[in-house]
Amino acid sequence: MDHETAWADPTTRRAWRRTALFRCAALAGSLLAFPVWLFAVVMTPAWLLVLWLPVLCAGLWYALLAVVAVASLAGMRRVLHIYPWQVSIAEVRSKKNGGTQFVVPDPERPEKAVRLGYGGLIGTGRHFWVRTARSGQVTAAWFAGDPRYLGVVATSGPRHLVRVAQREATDSRMSPRKRGVSPEARARARAAGARVGGD
What we know:
4 helices; 21% strand; alpha+beta; single chain; elongated
Protein backbone atom coordinates (compact mmCIF):
# COMPACT_ATOMS: atom_id res chain seq x y z
CA MET A 1 0.00 0.00 0.00
CA ASP A 2 1.24 3.49 -0.87
CA HIS A 3 -0.56 5.30 1.94
CA GLU A 4 1.09 6.37 5.17
CA THR A 5 -1.95 5.25 7.17
CA ALA A 6 -4.89 3.03 6.33
CA TRP A 7 -7.29 5.96 6.77
CA ALA A 8 -5.47 7.91 4.04
CA ASP A 9 -6.76 5.33 1.54
CA PRO A 10 -10.23 6.35 0.21
CA THR A 11 -11.30 2.70 -0.07
CA THR A 12 -10.64 2.26 3.66
CA ARG A 13 -12.82 5.24 4.49
CA ARG A 14 -15.61 3.84 2.31
CA ALA A 15 -15.26 0.42 3.97
CA TRP A 16 -15.44 2.02 7.43
CA ARG A 17 -18.57 3.98 6.46
CA ARG A 18 -20.22 0.77 5.15
CA THR A 19 -19.34 -0.99 8.41
CA ALA A 20 -20.71 1.91 10.47
CA LEU A 21 -23.95 2.01 8.46
CA PHE A 22 -24.50 -1.74 8.81
CA ARG A 23 -23.80 -1.75 12.56
CA CYS A 24 -26.00 1.28 13.25
CA ALA A 25 -28.84 -0.29 11.22
CA ALA A 26 -28.48 -3.54 13.21
CA LEU A 27 -28.63 -1.59 16.49
CA ALA A 28 -31.67 0.41 15.35
CA GLY A 29 -33.42 -2.83 14.32
CA SER A 30 -32.71 -4.40 17.71
CA LEU A 31 -33.94 -1.36 19.62
CA LEU A 32 -37.09 -1.03 17.51
CA ALA A 33 -37.89 -4.73 17.97
CA PHE A 34 -37.56 -4.55 21.78
CA PRO A 35 -40.92 -2.79 22.45
CA VAL A 36 -42.63 -5.35 20.20
CA TRP A 37 -41.12 -8.23 22.17
CA LEU A 38 -42.00 -6.54 25.45
CA PHE A 39 -45.59 -5.95 24.33
CA ALA A 40 -45.88 -9.59 23.27
CA VAL A 41 -44.63 -10.72 26.69
CA VAL A 42 -47.03 -8.43 28.57
CA MET A 43 -50.03 -9.45 26.44
CA THR A 44 -49.27 -13.17 26.56
CA PRO A 45 -51.22 -15.25 29.09
CA ALA A 46 -49.10 -16.43 31.99
CA TRP A 47 -49.20 -20.06 30.90
CA LEU A 48 -47.71 -19.10 27.47
CA LEU A 49 -45.10 -16.77 28.93
CA VAL A 50 -42.53 -19.55 29.01
CA LEU A 51 -42.53 -19.52 25.18
CA TRP A 52 -41.84 -15.77 24.90
CA LEU A 53 -39.15 -15.36 27.56
CA PRO A 54 -36.40 -17.08 25.51
CA VAL A 55 -37.26 -14.82 22.55
CA LEU A 56 -37.03 -11.73 24.76
CA CYS A 57 -33.70 -12.85 26.26
CA ALA A 58 -32.27 -13.54 22.79
CA GLY A 59 -33.44 -10.12 21.62
CA LEU A 60 -31.77 -8.41 24.58
CA TRP A 61 -28.54 -10.33 23.93
CA TYR A 62 -28.43 -9.35 20.25
CA ALA A 63 -29.19 -5.73 21.15
CA LEU A 64 -26.23 -5.79 23.56
CA LEU A 65 -23.95 -7.22 20.86
CA ALA A 66 -25.13 -4.48 18.49
CA VAL A 67 -24.32 -1.78 21.10
CA VAL A 68 -20.80 -3.20 21.53
CA ALA A 69 -20.32 -3.33 17.74
CA VAL A 70 -21.33 0.34 17.34
CA ALA A 71 -19.16 1.37 20.30
CA SER A 72 -16.10 -0.22 18.64
CA LEU A 73 -16.40 1.99 15.53
CA ALA A 74 -14.54 4.93 17.08
CA GLY A 75 -11.71 2.66 18.24
CA MET A 76 -11.49 1.10 14.78
CA ARG A 77 -11.22 4.52 13.17
CA ARG A 78 -8.52 5.56 15.65
CA VAL A 79 -6.38 2.54 14.73
CA LEU A 80 -6.82 3.21 11.01
CA HIS A 81 -5.64 6.81 11.55
CA ILE A 82 -2.36 5.60 13.09
CA TYR A 83 -1.30 2.44 11.23
CA PRO A 84 -0.99 1.49 7.54
CA TRP A 85 -2.42 -1.70 6.04
CA GLN A 86 -0.16 -4.73 5.84
CA VAL A 87 -1.61 -6.75 2.99
CA SER A 88 -2.37 -10.45 3.57
CA ILE A 89 -0.06 -10.59 6.59
CA ALA A 90 -2.55 -12.14 9.05
CA GLU A 91 -3.22 -15.86 8.96
CA VAL A 92 -6.89 -16.65 9.67
CA ARG A 93 -7.72 -19.76 11.72
CA SER A 94 -10.84 -21.21 13.27
CA LYS A 95 -10.75 -21.76 17.05
CA LYS A 96 -12.24 -24.72 18.91
CA ASN A 97 -14.58 -22.43 20.88
CA GLY A 98 -16.22 -21.29 17.63
CA GLY A 99 -14.29 -18.04 17.33
CA THR A 100 -11.62 -16.87 14.91
CA GLN A 101 -7.90 -16.42 15.50
CA PHE A 102 -5.66 -14.03 13.57
CA VAL A 103 -1.94 -14.88 13.64
CA VAL A 104 0.28 -11.87 12.87
CA PRO A 105 4.10 -11.60 13.01
CA ASP A 106 5.53 -9.58 15.90
CA PRO A 107 6.58 -6.21 14.38
CA GLU A 108 9.94 -6.24 16.19
CA ARG A 109 10.58 -9.99 16.04
CA PRO A 110 9.01 -11.24 12.77
CA GLU A 111 10.06 -14.82 13.50
CA LYS A 112 7.57 -14.84 16.40
CA ALA A 113 3.80 -14.85 15.92
CA VAL A 114 1.20 -12.99 17.96
CA ARG A 115 -2.39 -14.26 18.18
CA LEU A 116 -5.52 -12.14 18.36
CA GLY A 117 -8.99 -13.60 18.81
CA TYR A 118 -12.47 -12.63 17.68
CA GLY A 119 -15.87 -14.16 18.41
CA GLY A 120 -16.63 -17.29 20.36
CA LEU A 121 -19.52 -15.63 22.23
CA ILE A 122 -23.10 -16.75 21.81
CA GLY A 123 -24.50 -14.85 18.85
CA THR A 124 -21.20 -14.23 17.03
CA GLY A 125 -21.27 -17.55 15.18
CA ARG A 126 -23.02 -16.02 12.17
CA HIS A 127 -20.48 -13.19 11.84
CA PHE A 128 -18.52 -13.13 8.56
CA TRP A 129 -15.11 -13.88 10.13
CA VAL A 130 -16.38 -16.79 12.20
CA ARG A 131 -18.22 -18.39 9.26
CA THR A 132 -15.43 -17.97 6.70
CA ALA A 133 -12.69 -19.10 9.07
CA ARG A 134 -14.66 -22.25 9.92
CA SER A 135 -15.27 -23.04 6.26
CA GLY A 136 -11.68 -22.23 5.21
CA GLN A 137 -13.00 -19.67 2.73
CA VAL A 138 -10.60 -16.96 4.01
CA THR A 139 -7.10 -17.95 5.14
CA ALA A 140 -5.24 -14.61 4.99
CA ALA A 141 -6.24 -11.05 5.89
CA TRP A 142 -5.04 -7.47 5.86
CA PHE A 143 -3.95 -6.04 9.19
CA ALA A 144 -3.48 -2.48 10.46
CA GLY A 145 -2.14 -2.08 13.98
CA ASP A 146 0.26 -3.67 16.42
CA PRO A 147 -0.79 -7.27 17.21
CA ARG A 148 0.78 -7.00 20.67
CA TYR A 149 -1.93 -4.45 21.49
CA LEU A 150 -4.74 -3.93 18.99
CA GLY A 151 -5.56 -3.64 15.32
CA VAL A 152 -8.12 -3.83 12.54
CA VAL A 153 -8.48 -6.87 10.30
CA ALA A 154 -10.00 -6.82 6.81
CA THR A 155 -10.35 -8.93 3.70
CA SER A 156 -8.76 -7.75 0.49
CA GLY A 157 -10.19 -4.48 -0.70
CA PRO A 158 -10.41 -3.67 2.24
CA ARG A 159 -13.76 -5.16 3.30
CA HIS A 160 -15.34 -6.77 6.38
CA LEU A 161 -13.48 -4.59 8.89
CA VAL A 162 -13.34 -5.76 12.50
CA ARG A 163 -11.37 -4.42 15.46
CA VAL A 164 -9.36 -6.92 17.51
CA ALA A 165 -7.33 -6.39 20.67
CA GLN A 166 -5.30 -8.14 23.31
CA ARG A 167 -7.27 -8.15 26.55
CA GLU A 168 -4.53 -6.41 28.53
CA ALA A 169 -4.55 -3.55 26.00
CA THR A 170 -8.18 -2.69 26.82
CA ASP A 171 -8.97 -4.14 30.27
CA SER A 172 -8.02 -1.86 33.18
CA ARG A 173 -8.04 -4.85 35.56
CA MET A 174 -4.98 -6.30 33.80
CA SER A 175 -1.40 -5.06 33.65
CA PRO A 176 -0.61 -3.63 30.20
CA ARG A 177 2.16 -5.20 28.15
CA LYS A 178 5.52 -3.40 28.42
CA ARG A 179 8.24 -6.02 27.91
CA GLY A 180 9.69 -6.57 24.46
CA VAL A 181 8.13 -3.44 22.97
CA SER A 182 10.12 -0.37 21.89
CA PRO A 183 9.13 3.08 23.22
CA GLU A 184 8.18 4.13 19.67
CA ALA A 185 5.83 1.15 19.24
CA ARG A 186 4.26 1.83 22.64
CA ALA A 187 3.72 5.49 21.75
CA ARG A 188 1.93 4.51 18.51
CA ALA A 189 -0.20 1.94 20.32
CA ARG A 190 -1.14 4.53 22.94
CA ALA A 191 -2.13 6.97 20.17
CA ALA A 192 -4.32 4.19 18.69
CA GLY A 193 -6.15 3.78 22.01
CA ALA A 194 -4.30 0.89 23.67
CA ARG A 195 -3.28 0.70 27.33
CA VAL A 196 0.53 0.44 27.26
CA GLY A 197 1.55 1.30 30.82
CA GLY A 198 3.95 3.96 32.08
CA ASP A 199 7.40 4.53 30.67
